[in-house]
Amino acid sequence: MDDLRRRWGDIARAALGQGHALLAAALTEAQPLTLVGETLTISAPPNRSATFGDPAHLRALSQVLLATVGRPLQISIATAVGSERGDRYRAAEEHPLVREFRQKLDADIVARERVDEATWRERLLLREQQTAREQLPAR
Fold first, then answer.
1. Separation in Å, CA 9 to CA 3, 61, 101, 129
2. Neighbours of 120 (CB within 10 A)
3. How far is the first Cα of the chain from the last one, in angstroms, to the nearest whole number?
4. What is the pLDDT of residue 101?
5. Cα–Cα distance for residue pair 26/87, rounded to 1 Å
6. 112: Cβ contacts below 8 Å, ≥ 6 apart
7. Is the Cα dihedral 116, 43, 108, 126 positive or negative?
8. C-beta separation of 52 from 44 below 8 A
9. For the whole model, what pTM was predicted?
10. Element (H or E) spanning 86, and its range?
11. pLDDT tens profile 4-42
């Protein structure tokens, strides 16, 4: 279970990488509670009940878990009454600057994660290198 908790961010990123943006966003607000046998119970905030209640999203989550964890798991959802993490997320969404950016860019927040500065700089460098490679003329 500890390994699953450590890899939860990887599971959300894998969902996003497979085109499941709503599921990835829901996973960033959820957390694994228990793993008993082959049943994983996930704590999810009430605002994500529609996502986790959708059979298509649950199938996608099952596939992501199989690919990430390496074994099939049954999924059980426990709706959290409220969570500090979800409260912080909602507060951030309501911040005037965030609302302004979302409106100007016609954007939505699909995932978030905390990273340390070294990881952020590493990802930025990789992104810059990828952009530079994409700008090279095709041979």
1. 11, 13, 25, 24
2. 11
3. 48
4. 82
5. 14
6. 28, 89
7. positive
8. yes
9. 0.58
10. helix 84-94
11. 888 898 999 999 999 998 899 889 888 898 999 999 999
